[in-house]
Amino acid sequence: MEWLTADEQTAWRSFLQATTLLEDYLDRQLQRDAGMPHMYYALLSTLSETPARRMRMTELAERVKITRSRLSHAVARLEGDGWLRRESCPSDRRGQIVVLTDTGYDKLVQTAPGHVEAVRAAIFDRLSAEQTAQLAEISQVIADGLHQPAGADVPWLR
Amino acid sequence: MEWLTADEQTAWRSFLQATTLLEDYLDRQLQRDAGMPHMYYALLSTLSETPARRMRMTELAERVKITRSRLSHAVARLEGDGWLRRESCPSDRRGQIVVLTDTGYDKLVQTAPGHVEAVRAAIFDRLSAEQTAQLAEISQVIADGLHQPAGADVPWLR
What we know:
The structure is a homodimer of 158-residue chains.
Chain A: H1 6-34, H2 38-48, E1 54-56, H3 57-64, H4 68-80, E2 84-89, E3 92-100, H5 102-124, H6 129-147
Antiparallel strand pairs in A: 1-3, 2-3
């Protein structure tokens, strides 16, 4: 058993504070300006970038890194808002497809500028280009580690 | 309105994936091994580092960067487990003090090695010393920004 070094502890505490504050800030911004939490925005945004704005539920859960039950709950609410709809998958009777509706797309288009501005103000306006590249690399290393080993306890396979 | 550059988008996506996966991973680890989510662990750990293992509720909320109502909820549960207890503040009748009990301290001592190992495996075993220093600096810049301006909409003042 090896404790964290002083440098690691400093990094860990600052990271926890930054991520806790950031999550709160972005959730508040999106709740206030668009009536949805950050994770719902991520779902709309991810769907908007696919061909025909649709995706299998299982793939969407993997992209957004959440459990299928959390996704189902979110999709039900977003369906109630008229921003998404579910379709059955023609090639797989157990699969379900989630589709971004035109209303949902309009909502995203309307919401995106304010959200991007918030992300920019909180992060990228404050980091140098070098720090942005460092953040990308560090985040990739951490994310890759949590995908391994194959068969890891990743949320979307639960 | 300025969109994110390609480099900023890459960094932002990787960062979101890393933090979503990490939160899930650490919550699962602590739920499995200690029956508590990550945020509860942070409360016990923060209290353990203070003189006499006690702190005012308002200060604890600020340290852990959460709202007072979220803290009250967590403290009620941790009090039920016998790990914390509340005392009224002698110098301020409206203030409340939260105290880490001996049982709570034992629980923390028992839980810490496995949790530190998980943090190490997910982050610090994978980063170079240079990356650890970069992560500390980047996190500090982001956290500082979200504390400003004075009177910012920080969670613990809500």
